[in-house]
Design a protein that fits this description.
The protein contains 5 helices and 3 strands. By secondary structure, it is of the alpha+beta class. A 3-stranded antiparallel sheet has the order 1-2-3. The protein is rod-shaped. The relative contact order is 0.16.
Length: 143
């Protein structure tokens, strides 16, 4: 390759070190990449969830809805913030339900859509983390 043996040895050593670095980087990336994609355990879901008191509010169509929720966050900080923002959450829920009629809750899709709307609106006001899921734990529709 080159006429100088010292230069040849240095080039081979640099090439080997570079290859080892690339292999180590790929191995570390593969090793730690899967851990963050795991679903949370039920204990983690409960730990990062907040139960809200029953909310009763009128519907646009004249009936009323009585609702209880459990809101799952992504961290301890988000849970603490959500507890402080309980009045905002109740306001969001009341406004979301007040704009709906009884027919909006027909079938499973109506309640699922309400949960998604509430989640999106709460995430708009959250600063330290986000809402992962809103669960309806009690629901009564009186028309």
């Amino acid at each position: 390759m080159f006429r100088n043996k010292l230069l040849n040895a240095m080039m081979i050593i640099l090439l080997v070190i570079t290859l080892l670095g690339v292999v180590a980087l790929v191995a570390v990336d593969k090793l730690y990449a899967d851990e963050t994609a795991e679903e949370p355990t039920i204990d983690e879901i409960i730990k990062y969830s907040v139960d809200f008191d029953e909310i009763t509010t009128n519907l646009q169509s004249g009936g009323y809805v009585r609702l209880k929720m459990k809101v799952q966050t992504d961290s301890k900080k988000a849970t603490a913030e959500l507890l402080k923002r309980d009045f905002q959450v109740q306001s969001i829920v009341i406004h979301e339900i007040a704009n709906k009629s009884a027919s909006d809750f027909d079938g499973d899709n109506g309640l699922t859509q309400l949960e998604e709307d509430i989640q999106r609106k709460i995430n708009e006001v959250m600063q330290d983390g986000e809402i992962v899921k809103v669960y309806t734990t009690s629901f009564l529709l009186q028309n």
